[in-house]
Amino acid sequence: MKDLNIYFHIPYCKAKCRFCSFYVIPGRKSRLEEYFKALQKEIVDHKHTLQNYNIRTIYVGGGTPSLVDSPYVVEVINTIKSNFNIDSFCEISIETNPETITLEKIEDYLSVGVNRISIGLQSTDDQILKFMGRLYTFDEFKERYEIVKNSAISNINLDLIFGIPGLTLELWQQTLEKTIELEPKHISTYSLEIDPDSIFGYLEKRGRFKRMDDNLDRKMYKLSKKVLNNSEFFQYEISNFAANGYECKHNLNIWKGQDYIGFGASSHSRINNMRYNNINSLEKYIDLINTGQSPKENISELSTNDLLNERIILNLRTNRGINLDQINSEFDSEITSNLNSNIDGLLQQKLIKIEKNYLSLTSKGQDLENYVNLQLVNI
Ligand code: SF4
C-alpha cells in the first residue's frame, strides 16, 4: 500500500483578512448545503481509485473550517473514514479561527477522531490584529483558547505572522513570549507576503501600504528561531517549530515527498506523478460535480526531472534536509549532476551543510532559500 495524505477545503470565512490571498468566500455562506454534498460526492467517487492507499493524514483547511456547523465537518470525515483505508495513527487536523471556536464544535471534532487543532492567532497585539483585519482581540482569543486547552486535544498549533508594518522587534519578542506562555505544542511563524490579489496588495498598488524593510523582516525571523529554540520548541522546517514529537505529520509527509490529494474547490493534489488543482470557483465546482464532470484543471504529468526538482525544494524546507544517498540511488546521475556539482560551492558559501549524508540549509541558507534551490535543481 502506498501512503496518501488527504486535504479537504472549506472556503467560507466571516470576512476577508487584509493579507489573505486564498480562495475564500467571505460573508454569506453561499450554497453551503450544496457544497458539502458535492464534496462528499467527490470523495466517494474516489473510493475505488484510492483502494491501494493507506491514509496517513487528513487535513481540514480553508477558509475557516470552524465557521461552518460542526456536523458538516463530521460528516465529511466520516465519509473519508468509511471509504478509504485509514492508518491507525492517522493525524486528523483542523484549521480554526479563534472567534468561531465553541465547546460543542470541539466535542464534535473529537467524536470523529480529530487529534490536532491549528488556530490562527497571528498576533497577540490588538492593534496589529485590527490592522490585519482579524476579528478578535487577544483577550477574546484567550477565552476561546481555554476551551481547546481544556479539551482532550493536546496537539495545538498557533499560527503567527511577522513582517507586518508597525511591528517592532520588541513587540515581536513579546508576541513570541506570550504565545509560548499559552503552552501550545506547535508554533508556525510566517513572514507576511504581499499577494497582488490581497487587500494589502491592492492598497500597495495605490501607494497606501508600505512593506516592512527586508532587513528588519529577517531580524524578526532570526529572533523567532532564537526565542523558540531557547524554549521547548525546536525548528523542523523553515517556518515551523514543535515540541518533541508534535511536528505536523501532514506537512512533513508532503515535504518528504509523499502523495497528497485535495478535495473541494481550489484544492491541490499531487498523486501518481500527476499534479492538478480543482477549479477555483465554488459555483463551477458544485456544477461540475453535480453533472458528473471532473473539477480538475491544470493537470500535468510530472517528468522524472520535475519529481527530482520538487523533492529537492520540499526536502530542503525541512531541517533534516535531502537524503543524498536516497536521491542518488533513485534518480539518474545525468539529472542529479546539477545537485552534485553545486554542493561544494554552496558549502564554501556556508549556505548548506551535510551531516550523515543529509544536505540541509544553514541559518544563512534559510535566508537565501530561493538562491540555494536554484543552484540545486535541474533546469
Ligand atoms: S486568512 Fe484565514 S480567516 Fe482570513 S480570510 Fe484568509 S482563510 Fe479566511
Give a brief description.
With 379 residues, the protein is of the alpha/beta class. It has helices at residues 32-45, 70-83, 103-111, 126-132, 138-149, 169-181, 199-205, 214-229, 249-256, 282-290, 304-317, 324-330, 333-348, 363-367, 369-376, and strands at 2-10, 12-13, 25-26, 53-62, 85-96, 116-122, 156-162, 186-191, 234-237, 240-242, 259-263, 268-271, 274-278, 296-301, 322-323, 352-355, 358-361. Strand 4, helix 2 (70-83) and strand 5 (85-96) form a beta-alpha-beta unit.
Structural description of this entry:
By secondary structure, the protein is α/β, with parallel strands linked by helices. The chain folds into 2 domains: 254 residues, Aldolase class I (TIM Barrel), CATH 3.20.20.70; 57 residues, no CATH class. The protein has 15 helices and 17 strands. The chain has a 9-stranded mixed beta sheet with strand order 9-10-8-7-6-5-4-1-11, with helices on both faces. β16 and β17 form a beta hairpin. The two termini are 32 Å apart. The mean pLDDT is 96. The structure holds iron/sulfur cluster. Iron/sulfur cluster (SF4) binds next to loops.
